Amino acid sequence: MRLYSLSVLYKGDPKVHLLKAAYDVSSFNFFQRSRWVLGLHWGGCCGLGPCCLSDRASLAEYLCHVYVRSDGLVGVVIADNEYPQRVCFTLLDKVLDEFSRQVSKMDWPSGSPATITYSALDGYLSKYQVQTPGP
């Protein structure tokens, strides 16, 4: 069971934009990793079309979990199909609460990964990896 991506976005009017993201593509072929990061980013942003404010959804049956809060803050976890959905939404709730306390709401509409200071995503992505026992 693996987590591949953890993202925080802002669903403004008229579009959604990325505020911060962390990726773990270490399980993919070295030469394909940049494509996977691009795909994970695209999947996280474009998968939000059908979500309304204050919504929780698992959009793809295999790995994309989205939590859209009423304040427009969005969390996206991309995981393999074995990762427990409940854990994904617990993680998203924790990350979005912490993000909203640490990053001013005034910065969300114009923020970008380069301008937002929030460094906890990599730690959460690492902490929530589920290690399967070896043979």
Automatic annotation (TrEMBL):
GO terms for biological process: endoplasmic reticulum to Golgi vesicle-mediated transport; protein transport. Keywords: Lipoprotein, Membrane, Methylation, Palmitate, Prenylation, Protein transport, Transport. The keyword Protein biosynthesis does not apply. Residues 61-125 form the Longin domain. The keyword Protein biosynthesis does not apply. It is found in: Endomembrane system. It is a lipid-anchor. Belongs to the synaptobrevin family. This is YKT6A protein. It comes from Chloropsis hardwickii. The lineage of its organism: Eukaryota, Metazoa, Chordata, Craniata, Vertebrata. The gene is Ykt6a.
